[in-house]
């Protein structure tokens, strides 16, 4: 489904890809991910979308965001909003769907193939709109987790579904050995 002369872009829904890879029990090596899609075509852009909680002294996502930015990814962030739900639990809201959609639609005239790393069914209309512009769309997510992380209508709309678990050996980080504590 990939052709060497394809103008290609990848769009990574950071929270969704993180949840899918965790459900499958592995971490993504973003350097390997970028290399893999560089190999599959002419990679025009690699976008990564995530919300960041403002005001926190340390954000566990900040080192990843900084690394991605310095290593050729277009990192799109926005401030996450904190709220308390009806049960009194602290929740964080930081949906990046609009930003991803706008970037994909703007880039569409310059692409042959878009790769969406998300299983969010809200992206089905985006996939359909890209296809109407002549862009092939591959969606990367998983049906192997319980429950599956991809919406069935998104999987059906895509030109190609790529099972994230099938990419484990290509883009997965090797598991870390437990470190021995010296006594």
Automatic annotation (TrEMBL):
Pfam families in UniProt:
NYN
What residue stretches are annotated with the NYN domain?
A: 7-165
InterPro entries from the UniProt entry: LabA, NYN
Name this polypeptide is given:
NYN domain-containing protein
Please give the organism: Paracoccus rhizosphaerae
């Amino acid at each position: 489904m990939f052709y060497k002369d394809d103008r290609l872009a990848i769009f990574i829904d950071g929270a969704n890809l993180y949840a899918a890879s965790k459900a499958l029990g592995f971490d993504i090596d973003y350097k390997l991910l970028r290399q893999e899609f560089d190999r599959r075509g002419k990679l025009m852009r690699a976008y990564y979308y995530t919300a960041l909680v403002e005001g926190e002294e340390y954000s566990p996502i900040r080192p990843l965001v900084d690394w991605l930015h310095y290593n050729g990814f277009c990192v799109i962030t926005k401030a996450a909003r904190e709220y308390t739900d009806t049960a009194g639990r602290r929740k964080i809201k930081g949906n990046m769907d609009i930003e991803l959609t706008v970037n994909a639609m703007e880039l569409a005239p310059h692409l042959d193939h878009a790769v969406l790393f998300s299983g969010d069914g809200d992206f089905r209309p985006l996939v359909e709109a890209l296809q109407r512009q002549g862009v092939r769309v591959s969606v990367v997510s998983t049906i192997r987790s319980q429950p599956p992380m991809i919406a069935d209508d998104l999987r059906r709309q895509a030109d190609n579904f790529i099972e994230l678990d099938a990419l484990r050996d290509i883009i997965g980080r090797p598991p870390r050995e437990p470190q021995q504590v010296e006594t």
